[in-house]
Write a structure and sequence with these properties.
The chain is α+β, with helices and mostly antiparallel strands and 146 residues long. 20% of the residues lie in helices and 25% in strands. A 5-stranded antiparallel sheet has the order 1-2-3-5-4, covered by helices on one side.
Length: 146
């Protein structure tokens, strides 16, 4: 279960921040269009190895019939790159969790000192990711889906 917290455009790319309610952390995504050289590339490809985003890239997909991270029109081909804030050192937002999950978390992890990556933090990370994808997209890339 997740909640779409924000959808916007930055540098011509679609950006999305989701709250993953069951896990208590946020994830961010930036979508590139079909004419972008990174369209269709797996997030762990060497061409994307210098992307600096929280925890590193952890997602890529672009099936036009999927609705994750958001539903897009089928004619608007978008390939998503994402990161998440559910790593060691990331705090969990207990307030966003379903009550049963939050109660278990409080019972076993009440002294967790890690910062919660809030919406503003994730907006900045998405915009940084979009900036990087735009700035390096002029380099030739092989192996994407066209």
């Amino acid at each position: 279960m997740y909640t779409i917290e924000k959808v916007w455009d930055h540098k011509g790319l679609k950006c999305v921040v989701l709250m993953v309610n069951d896990a208590g952390h946020r994830s961010g995504y930036v979508g590139v269009p079909r004419d972008n050289p990174f369209f269709g590339l797996y997030y762990a490809r060497p061409e994307l190895g210098n992307i600096d985003v929280h925890g590193g890239l952890s997602y890529s997909s672009g099936n036009p019939f999927e609705s994750y991270p958001i539903k897009m029109p089928t004619w608007e081909s978008t390939w998503w790159f994402g990161y998440d804030c559910g790593h060691y050192g990331d705090g969990l937002d207990v307030e966003a969790m379903p009550e049963k999950v939050a109660a278990i978390h409080r019972q076993y992890h009440s002294d967790e000192p890690y910062p919660i990556r809030d919406l503003e933090y994730c907006i900045k990370e998405c915009e940084s990711l979009a900036d990087q994808l735009v700035s390096i997209s002029n380099k030739p890339v092989e192996g994407g889906v066209k």
